[in-house]
Input
Amino acid sequence: MTNATDVFTITIRRRRWWFWALAGLWLLLELLLLQTALASVAEGEPRAATISGIAAIVLAAAGVLLWLRRGQSQKPGEPSAQPDDASTPVEPQGQG
Amino acid sequence: MKAGGFVAAGGALGSLGALAIGTGVGENQRKRARWIKTVDRPTLSEKTADYKRFSGKDMFAIYVPLKTQRDGVGSFEAEQASKSKRLAAWMSERKPGFSLPDQQLSEGAWTVMRSSRPGTGLLSWTRPPARTPATPAEPGTQRYTASPEEMASTVKAAARLYGARLVGIAPMNENYVNQQVPREDEKQIDKDIVFEDIDVPSVTDTKFVIPRKMKWVVAIAIPMDLELLSRAPTALGDTASALGYSHSAFVVSSLAVFIRGLGYEAIPCVNDTAQSIPFAIDAGIGELSRLNKLVTPEFGPAVRLCKVFTDLPMAYDKPINFGLVEFCKTCKKCAEACPSRALSFDSEPSVRTRGPWNNPGHKAWYEDSYKCFEYWQKSGSACGVCLVSCPYTKGNQAWIHEGAKAAVSVAPATDGVFRILDNAFGYGKQRDPEQWWKNNSSSERRG
Output
């Protein structure tokens, strides 16, 4: 239950451009490795399929782990130690 | 800043896409990847004063005297007897790749090629005799005319329909035409190939005559079946070559009939009459490689070449450069894979030949065809390991192949990396011959 005197801060953090560039690169690599794995099976190249498949799985796992760690590194209620450059704090507004 | 990043990323992706599927070659050619650059002069094009027309006597024609000279009288006969005995034993014990079905698959694939001889049958140099006097409405009696560009497009479309995958137009170069058509048995004679100012090609008892007005050469590449070729050195691997030759005979003979029907003359050739490789290089089909064979950007060296000489005026194509010569300098995978050590390990191509089977006078990585042919006798097959081992010989499904070839073309510094990756990914290894029959046993063929 909230009181009229409680103050809330909502921070909208915009990710930096390089985050999206890295995410795009990760997605592209993932796509390329998966395509290579599947196409190598069709081409009858088992070693190429295995290496590409394993690389795709490792890259996917690394991406997911990094994503999760990033989420956990900021505890609820704590402001980011290094806020992103485009953070847009919303002015605290009291109720009532 | 953010917008700039998106634009940069989008641009990079766009470039990658354009590199893979974009057009980089003249309008006269079908769309090829942008990393295949056209050039005015072919790579390894310098000729010296030694360059002259090849005798026409390749290893098939000179192996017996060479073998006799090196290993003594009767050595060839002994080698052939040993080979026959070995093949018979392998057949009865059903050795994978040499069982009776394997060997007969190759025999069947040779059928069309074996019925084709220079100047006769499918490879006839002239029109068949008319059954009745020609009327103006009959094909061939009225000439079809169009611009050289349109003519080239028309001929290429027909060639592709008949089974060619890469087609280019090169100018006739008399130096590429063999001096002779060697005899096939003792009853025959070697026939000279000459150029004369005549209207119609002719074949007499003593010579083959090419009209000087035939200034255009349609150079054609037909890909070999990779599923079969990757079973080399076995009879199954040979089947890929045999099929390639038979397809070639079909394509050039069909194209010659088509061209004659348009009112022009045409001489269809497979491996005979002239050197296919220099014409294919001039026509922009590929580059000369460490194998001393043509390597195409699309199919590597796993192609069979053939050509049609004609007086039908067409726009010429330009040679290409896709970074192959630089790649061959560092790669050397074919030389390492060659079971007979017949291929050169030299870093740079040179004018130093290895024997009378080589045509001197130009820079190349000359091969020891004698060692190669001797291994054919030992292995009971026409080998083909070098063709499979080349990093350019790849299936056409994985996008990464196109990316690697593009990188090699635009950034030669990456050559060594791609050579290492090619090995790491296990490409170019011999596949299980028996598996071919299992893969193709269903009523519908895959791929």
User: Anything to note?
Assistant: Strands of chain A lie at 11-12, 88-89.
